[in-house]
Amino acid sequence: MPKLERMPEDHIYQAYGLYLLEPKHRLIRTLKRMYAPSVHGHKPWGSSYLIMDYLTHHPFRKGSRVMEIGCGWGPAAVFCAKRYKAKVTGVDVDKDVFPFLEVLAELNEVSVAPKVSKFQDLRAKELGRHQVIIGSDICFWDSMVKPLYNMISRALKSGTRRVIIADPGRPTFYELAELCAAKYETELSEWYATEPDRYLGEVLEVRA
Fold first, then answer.
1. How many domains are there within the chain?
2. CATH classification of the domain holding 32
3. Can you give the C-alpha Rg of the chain in angstroms?
4. pLDDT of res. 43
């Protein structure tokens, strides 16, 4: 992994108290030559900023255990670790996203534990150890709806208190929201982020 040098540098920007890297940053360019994320893990997605803004207004207890599913580069995971001193695990099916996550975590002087897993392989006991589970832009295929719903159910039955998922508003995301609303306390909110630019979407929060 390329050595990280502290700011000031070109191609670094800030959002919700984090330092983030633009695609032209030398570290990102170097990492992309070394790793090739294959499941849409080639950049931070806008819904991560929705999660950050939502949690700014609806925070959780400092020091909580948090899991980000489908974390990709993990900006939302890093936000939770930095803003709320959370003990965070980043989960993704693609191991090649974790070098990018590690760089973002190091840049912001936090740590996020990596875990390679599919949604359906996350066991109830492991999920339940986390008080909060978050995810952004993770319900983009029809085949993801049922595994995500089942994972949410396992988590809530095992002790997780809040599951928060952000999305630009895909039909598959609304299908997931309807499944959750039929069984759990569910709130679906239109939301927007103001940093680094305005980004509009939806946030689903599910509680037991």
1. 1
2. 3.40.50.150
3. 16
4. 59
Query: Lowest mean pLDDT: which of 17-26, 98-107, 117-126, 174-183?
Result: 17-26
pLDDT of 2 above 60: no
- For residue 36, the model assigns a pLDDT of 66
Residue 37: pLDDT over 70: no
Quick check: is 7 in a domain? no
Least Cα distance to 107 among 35, 197, 17, 196 occurs for 17
Residues 28, 22: Cα–Cα separation, whole Å = 8
What pTM was computed for the model? 0.90
Residue 199: beta bridge partners?
193
Q: Residues 72-128: pLDDT tens digits?
A: 999 999 999 999 999 999 999 999 999 999 999 999 999 999 999 999 999 999 999
**What does each C-alpha distance from 156 to 45, 86, 126, 163, 184 come to in angstroms?**
26, 19, 12, 8, 9
Domain range spanning residue 46? Answer: 12-207
CB atoms near residue 12 (< 10 Å): 14
